[in-house]
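Tokens in:
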């Protein structure tokens, strides 16, 4: 007559083994926080505890016999991660891995899993035991802490950049204000002391005006740059006849360009819808930049033409050109080049152009002059070309 487990009890060797196996089975089946199951040597599921069903969503009859790779994401399967983990466990005895896993319903959870290779008494490989725990909350908390740390580091970097900007700003202001102020004070002292001959007074007056213009340019650029950074610039587009506009601008800038030849190549009928003050500031900065960086006697010209719904405006000079190492930095704030200036004019020009949904570029080769090219959309022309858009 056969003996029951209770009859055998833990006192005999056979009973002890069966008793231990039964207690282990009951333990595994009672665990609900961990997925504990067996795989055969090829990775197919052989057993399935309630914790596995709760975590992964499969009933035993749905998953037993299926390859365990079904729990992995498509990229991990394509990368053959499930096979590599089994190979590592077989070679090293066990392996541990954390990553995203997929439930039956397609949702994902962050798993911390241990795979242990199983061998019989003769050392033959019989399969694997796999224990998986859901660590999604802990993983998301870690990611949140890492994001918060990264955001704090970025905030510190922004503060450091702001501090560098402040130092550069103060240094630039001190330098650019000092030069014209010293010049004005020096000339005024000579004039008031009567030490300037009458025939030299016109030249001194022009120098005083030049220094005053430099100070005014600095103040204007600082104010414009501050307004742009604070987003407090309002545009009022209007139809501008470019030929008349550019001719008047060059006349107004005659004192700045007095040592240069100026030309205008703009069709008389070319018009564009744009904010007048913005376009004037853009071109003033480009023309002033050309005057500073080209020697006396060279030519500075404005050219414009239409290209579909876009108006191309170019400021040309035939000066020495721009070095290659400076071309990429031309529109950065405080980039002053070798001939001074406020270091803000081109940065302001770029911002104003981009706020009009346009683009600006510079083309230059050493010894061949420079071209600053604006591409400005003509909003009125665009609406005329697509009347259905304007009706929306």
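Residues out:
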């Amino acid at each position: 007559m056969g003996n029951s487990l209770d009859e055998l009890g833990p006192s005999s060797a056979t009973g002890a083994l069966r008793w231990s196996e039964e207690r282990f089975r009951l333990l595994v089946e009672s665990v609900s926080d961990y997925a504990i199951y067996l795989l055969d040597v090829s990775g197919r599921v052989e057993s399935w505890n309630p914790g596995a069903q709760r975590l992964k969503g499969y009933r035993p009859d749905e998953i037993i016999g299926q390859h365990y790779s079904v729990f992995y994401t498509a990229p991990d399967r394509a990368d053959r991660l499930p096979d590599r983990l089994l190979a590592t466990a077989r070679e090293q005895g066990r392996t541990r891995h954390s990553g995203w896993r997929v439930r039956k319903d397609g949702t994902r959870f962050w798993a911390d899993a241990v795979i242990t290779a199983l061998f019989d008494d003769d050392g033959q490989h019989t399969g694997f035991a796999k224990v998986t725990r859901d660590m999604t909350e802990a993983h998301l908390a870690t990611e949140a802490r890492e994001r918060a740390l990264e955001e704090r580091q970025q905030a510190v970097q922004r503060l450091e950049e702001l501090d560098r900007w402040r130092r550069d700003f103060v240094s630039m202001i001190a330098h650019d204000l000092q030069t014209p102020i010293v010049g004005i004070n020096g000339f005024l002292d000579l004039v008031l002391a009567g030490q300037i001959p009458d025939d030299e007074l016109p030249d001194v007056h022009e120098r005083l005006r030049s220094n005053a213009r430099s100070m005014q340019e600095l103040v204007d650029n600082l104010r414009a740059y501050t307004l742009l950074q604070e987003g407090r610039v309002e545009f009022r587009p209007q139809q501008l006849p470019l030929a008349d506009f550019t001719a008047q601008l060059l006349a107004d800038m005659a004192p700045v360009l007095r040592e240069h030849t100026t030309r205008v190549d703009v069709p008389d009928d070319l018009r564009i819808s744009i904010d007048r003050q913005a376009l004037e500031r853009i071109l003033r900065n480009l023309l002033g930049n050309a005057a500073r960086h080209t020697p006396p006697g060279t030519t500075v010209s404005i050219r414009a033409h239409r290209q579909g719904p876009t108006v191309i405006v170019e400021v040309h000079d035939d000066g020495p050109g721009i070095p290659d190492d400076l071309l990429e930095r031309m529109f950065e704030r405080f980039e002053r080049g070798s001939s001074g200036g406020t270091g803000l004019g081109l940065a302001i020009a770029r911002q104003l152009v981009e706020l009009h949904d346009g683009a600006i570029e510079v083309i230059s080769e050493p010894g061949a002059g420079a071209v600053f090219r604006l591409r400005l959309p003509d909003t009125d022309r665009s609406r005329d070309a697509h009347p259905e858009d304007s009706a929306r």
